[in-house]
């Protein structure tokens, strides 16, 4: 009612003035031509339109150097087109003032200050800033702020801006909630492994977070996305920010490859690549973690086949084929008992091991020091498409050889695909073979006890081993009886002609009915081998 009283006072004042003026008029009355005086209406706050919130957007502010402090940044626009940024943090300290800013770029990239925000009051953890322009004077609206290429930093104090208590991407850099995680396995240090997680941004780019376990303190570990699979190797396509050994963490924004080709979240998921994390820039050859990404990711499906001993009874193992999401396969050969320094070639052959056949596919060689080989399988050696599903049905077997210079010595062998489980003959049947001077071979086995030059009966499809200890008397399996290397029968036979070693004979299904064994130098050291079904 105060405003109404003031208005009435003004009316009384003007009425009095008019009365005095009328008394001075010659006509003794009011001039009829005089316009009546009107009063300007007063503004009434009770009648003004209320200012209301019309839209808002909340961004998360995560902990950084203080795990206890986190919160939100709320961008609000009002009906009068004004914009306010409200920060609300938990677990701040009473009496502290925490400077805050909006920066250019993503938090992973870093950037200069774009807007100074009011400091957060530690007493209640809040601040409120009316934002109309960037620091350099460019006007900015609410719509432009929520599409901005930026992030927010909240610092410990003006005296310690280097310590961040909270941080979060805003605008187009906000994370959508969609992510993809890949495993990073140990390589040269069995204690270090981890993950690489890619988070989608609303602008289609990605935040890559590498998290490793057990990294050495104060280490800085370079990382890259490479072309191809880890088993194949390839050039660097993208460079991550190094992994901090103190935390095991690296954060990198991904928008383009190193050659500036556009490369965002969707491209990561379909990329033909893998990740390497190195010990240091000085020791890039030492890998601490590695993993396939994109289309090379493993689906979780796998098939394992046994690789049995052949010429060296202490060596055996497995081959495991792991399906990739693109239909290709990772082949992992693991052998027991291989020697440090050895390099052992391996192949998939056509047919069963009992039949023998040509090479279809060449593996990366098994390293003797680790007993391991890893090979990507996408096609056969003749470029025929050959993936995981083809492996399960292939008419084939695997041979692992002693060396490139001694392919005749097999250290492991096994049927795969359609031939898996076909060996119904059980384990190999062994003969121990010695000599009696220059006249006879002496055989010992489950059925032979010191027999000299016995005739043997072998079954097609069965595996036999001859452990020869007859120095100076090379033992040959032959098609024609007689002392020489001529007419040796090598189908299904490895290490034929050994005098101190193991000869393996996987009797082919099409083997002739009659073969012979003979000393290379002494014709009387011989016997007949009868082949039956």
3D architecture notes:
This protein has an 8-stranded antiparallel sheet with strand order 5-4-7-8-1-2-3-6. Mean pLDDT is 91; it is low at 1-36. It contains 4 helices and 38 strands. The chain is elongated and about 120 Å long. The protein has 4 domains: 53-171, Immunoglobulin-like (Sandwich); 175-294, Superoxide dismutase, copper/zinc binding domain (Immunoglobulin-like); 298-417, Immunoglobulin-like (Sandwich); 429-532, Cupredoxins -  blue copper proteins (Immunoglobulin-like). It is mostly beta strands and 533 residues long.
Mass-distribution shape: elongated
Beta strand count: 38
| Largest pleated sheet | 8 strands, antiparallel
* Arrangement of strands in the largest sheet: 5-4-7-8-1-2-3-6
Walk me through the topology.
Elements: H1 2-23, E1 53-63, E2 70-78, E3 83-90, E4 97-104, E5 113-121, E6 126-130, H2 142-145, E7 149-157, E8 160-171, E9 175-186, E10 193-201, E11 206-213, E12 220-221, E13 223-227, E14 236-239, E15 243-244, E16 249-254, H3 265-270, E17 272-278, E18 287-294, E19 298-309, E20 316-324, E21 329-336, E22 343-344, E23 346-350, E24 359-362, E25 366-367, E26 372-377, H4 388-393, E27 395-403, E28 406-417, E29 429-436, E30 440-444, E31 449-452, E32 456-459, E33 463-469, E34 475-478, E35 493-494, E36 500-506, E37 514-519, E38 526-532
Parallel strand pairs: 29-33, 32-38
Antiparallel strand pairs: 1-2, 1-8, 2-3, 3-6, 4-5, 4-7, 7-8, 9-10, 9-18, 10-11, 11-16, 12-15, 13-14, 13-17, 17-18, 19-20, 19-28, 20-21, 21-26, 22-25, 23-24, 23-27, 27-28, 29-30, 30-31, 33-36, 34-37, 35-36, 37-38
């Amino acid at each position: 009612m105060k405003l109404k009283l003031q208005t009435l006072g003004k009316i009384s004042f003007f009425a009095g003035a008019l009365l005095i003026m009328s008394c001075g008029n010659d006509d003794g009355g009011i001039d009829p031509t005089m316009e009546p005086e009107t009063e300007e209406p007063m503004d009434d706050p009770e009648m003004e339109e209320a200012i209301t919130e019309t839209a808002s957007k909340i961004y998360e502010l995560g902990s950084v150097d203080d795990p206890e402090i986190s919160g939100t940044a709320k961008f609000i626009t009002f009906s009068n087109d004004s914009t306010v940024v409200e920060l609300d943090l938990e677990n701040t300290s009473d009496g502290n003032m925490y400077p805050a800013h909006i920066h250019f770029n993503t938090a992973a990239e870093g950037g200069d200050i774009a807007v100074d925000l009011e400091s957060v009051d530690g007493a209640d953890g809040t601040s409120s800033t009316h934002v109309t322009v960037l620091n350099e004077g460019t006007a900015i609206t609410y719509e432009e702020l929520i599409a901005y290429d930026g992030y927010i930093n909240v610092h410990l104090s003006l005296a310690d801006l280097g310590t961040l208590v909270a941080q979060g991407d805003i605008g187009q850099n906000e994370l959508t909630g969609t992510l993809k995680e890949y495993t990073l396995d140990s390589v040269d240090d069995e204690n270090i492994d981890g993950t690489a997680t890619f988070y989608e941004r609303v602008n289609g780019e990605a935040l890559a977070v590498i998290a490793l376990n057990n990294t050495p303190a104060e280490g800085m570990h370079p990382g890259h996305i490479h072309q191809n699979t880890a088993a194949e190797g390839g050039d660097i396509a993208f460079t991550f920010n190094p992994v901090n050994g103190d935390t095991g963490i690296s954060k990198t924004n991904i928008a383009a490859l190193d050659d500036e080709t556009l490369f965002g979240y969707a491209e990561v998921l379909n990329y033909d690549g893998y990740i390497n994390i190195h010990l240091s820039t000085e020791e890039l050859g030492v890998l601490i973690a590695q993993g396939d990404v994109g289309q090379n990711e493993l689906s979780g499906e796998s098939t394992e086949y046994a690789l049995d001993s052949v010429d060296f009874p202490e060596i055996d193992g497995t081959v495991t084929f792991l399906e990739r999401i693109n239909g290709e396969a990772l082949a992992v050969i693991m052998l027991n008992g291989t020697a440090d320094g050895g390099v052992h070639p391996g192949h998939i052959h056509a047919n069963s091991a009992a039949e023998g056949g040509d090479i279809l596919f060449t593996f990366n060689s098994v390293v003797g020091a680790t007993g391991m080989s890893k090979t990507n399988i996408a096609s056969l050696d003749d470029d025929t498409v050959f993936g995981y599903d083809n492996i399960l049905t292939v008419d084939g077997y695997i041979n692992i050889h002693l060396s490139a210079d001694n392919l005749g010595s097999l250290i492991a062998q096994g049927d795969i695909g359609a031939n898996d489980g076909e060996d119904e003959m059980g384990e190999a049947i062994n003969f121990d073979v010695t000599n009696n001077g220059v006249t006879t071979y002496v055989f010992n086995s489950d059925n032979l006890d010191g027999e000299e030059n016995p005739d043997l009966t072998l079954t097609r499809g069965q595996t036999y081993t001859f452990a020869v200890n007859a120095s100076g008397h090379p033992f040959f399996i032959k098609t024609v009886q007689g002392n020489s290397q001529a007419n040796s029968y090598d189908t299904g036979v490895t290490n034929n002609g050994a005098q101190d070693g193991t000869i393996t004979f996987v009797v082919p299904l099409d083997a002739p009915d009659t073969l012979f064994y003979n000393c290379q130098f002494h014709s009387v050291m011989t016997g007949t081998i009868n082949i039956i079904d």
